[in-house]
Records
---
Amino acid sequence: MHYELVDIGANLAHDSFDDDRDDVLQRAFDVNVNTLLITGSSDESNVAALELAGRYPVQLYSTAGVHPHHASDYDEKSDDIIRKCLTDDRCVAVGECGLDYFRNLSPREAQLEAFRAQLDIAGDTGHPVFLHQRNAHDDFVEVLESVLPKRSRAVAHCFTGESESLREFLAIGLYIGITGWICDERRGEHLKDIVAVIPDDRLMIETDSPYLLPRTLRPRPKSRRNEPAYLPEILKTIAAARGQTEEHVAAITTANAKRFFGIS
């Protein structure tokens, strides 16, 4: 294996990693997942993600945002924490932020308000945006269309949608993050049919650890916890679906991630 990979979305501040976080990272480095973006999704995880990035200053970066599930908790303190994190060079994006009408753990109005507030932060600071969307396509696109021309870059993290939404996301300028969902024969097969639509310069890959363990892994891990070391399995599945070599997909996704997040 002669390529390096960037995992643009790993929730390594999650408590499921508390007992072996350093080992998890070493396993990732051992398979050339050399750069990881630690996702911030709440006041607490934003601080924890940045602290973790500081412990591995060559390989780790973080994001800072409030997930739509936590939108009801978004207040001035949340805003201040995100802005403060972004003053550190290791915090390189606003998010995870967006809309989630699948569970509606926060009311839709609260989600829209928190989403717009975080897009304002991205506009003020010039940082790219790490986006979440589930069952909220129309509102999501409507909010983004009005602000994207004034934002530097935005990625649809963990894209799981159909062809029409993919084409619409590409048309408004989004990058696309693909996870192990594409390895799930029960609900991700459609992604294999459409992932080739994504231009080479807009594709990125991610594990979304500890979620979305790739179901194609052999032998199957004893634990259902996903981790960054499994990113090569996602790469392999994407490359096959796109009719490209793993080396090519590794090269383009790594270059895209470094350009998108402004990292070396």
---
Amino acid sequence: MTPDPRPVAARFGPRAANLSWEPVGGGFSGAAVWRGADPAGTPLLALKAWPADFPSSRLAAIHARVALLAHLPFVPRIHATPDGDTVVVAGGRAWDVSSWANGEPERGVPSAGRVSSAAAALAAVHAAWRESASGPAPAVLRRLRVLADWDADQPAPVGPFGDAVRRAIGVLPRHLAAARAALRPWATRAVPLQPCLVDVWPEHVCFAGEKVVGLIDFGAVQVDHVAADLARLFGGFPGPSSLPAALAAYRAAGGRFDEPDGFAQVLADTGIACAAAAWVVRGGPPAVAARLHALLDRLGS
């Protein structure tokens, strides 16, 4: 059952309490999101109930990380309760409130201007989070774990998810073999590591014209190589690869990327196949079938 957002919104003070709250989704994770609008219908705040298994301590740590981006106008501001808390626990879930991100995500092939703007936005985030650490890229290790899980446990193609699983079992093996070969040389190679967004899909970047005006969903922030973000975002757009142009714009905006460009391309090329394999292995609700079919379509193109 979807929880009632109003009692939680009231705990964030009069401004949140006096808004009208409308559900706007939450994705496959089990999260739920509401848009808070004023009497004129202008959206002002976003209220999110995080998945039931998402620890409140982790959310508070993410808020501390996001606070380092307060100088970036496209990053939503995290709001606190009158007592200064940015996380409220209610109904067994962690909740937070942030400013509403205006603009709309790119739903097709991005223009050169949007590619450049999005790459510059990533460069600014990464610069604010830059740290001195090194080791094998977690993005590589995550993909290799997915490949190991695929080898060990493929579900039978049954139920409402079955057609997509059946198609994946027919399509994926050759792509996963290529992914394994491409990833292995990077499995033990030390690269610079720092906090990254990790789950920055195209739907998480909002544009007004060519300009990035919103960057949402920081729930997957963890230490990785910056190529993980570049590959996830620019490998997620449809059409011809925009990654070479994105890397050039990223460096021009001050982004630090010292590895060969081919490393980002490896992560982009293997990310689609490994994401599809992960959905097959762990399964999901019927709605996930559309995501899996979309990933397989990308591989086919």
---
Amino acid sequence: MTEEISISANGLTFRALAEGPADGAPVLLMHGFPEGAESWGPQLAALGAAGFRAVAPDLRGYGGTDAPEGEDAYHARDLIADVTGLLDALDWERAHVVGHDWGALIGWGFAANHPDRALTWTALSVGHPTAFYRAGREDEDQRRRSDYIRLFWLVGKAEEVLAQDGYRRLRATYREFGPNRDAMPDSLVDAYIEGFARPGRLTAALNYYRVALRELPAITGQVHVPTLLVWGNEDPAVGRRGTEATADFVEARYRLVELAGAGHWLQFERPQEVAREMIDHLRADARD
């Protein structure tokens, strides 16, 4: 049964969802944009049933978590420090760490800089930040896929455009980033939009793009943690170039799982497959 918990870390209060026995192997799951902890619902249930203690927080600026004002609160090192702060607050010396979209970008930085705190690392949709950055610079396909980010960099203008007509353009993100337009429940989309309509919340989420996205490649080196990358080959935002190049940045057990016909919202489009691949990865070293 899913629990809602509160975690104090790095001077912020994080709202989180949790499943599984208190003494289960720890798993921290981080969502992306424009989502929240609920994006991990199917996987939280699967992990809990498998005996893991899984916790999915709303990240800084999202949902029920505090949203500090100003771009200076969204530097890449601050977002990575939130991961270590959450582990400390949960009294987890080491944990399996999982991230989707922005949670993946933060998680790559965490895994590279704090390998002693990660049992395993699992990324959904987005590969290593340097591979992603290079693909955006060198590959016309990835440049086209990432074109939407240019709007997000426009302070004030992005907020205005995304909020127009009842957040029509932001709502479209949940339907257009994959072949299965109905993968995410309407009730959850409504809840997310309601959250972003709160003062300052949309700006907080966009600050990840305006600050941390530019910084992550410079501070994310080689990863020495057992790593799984799960990618949908019909993801409109993330192409093949950076996904396949990610292997060059992992110096540990590594596997790329390509989900044919899947888009960006993998947790909803392929909930059972994602949970199965994740649990198999988390248990792999224990079997060896």
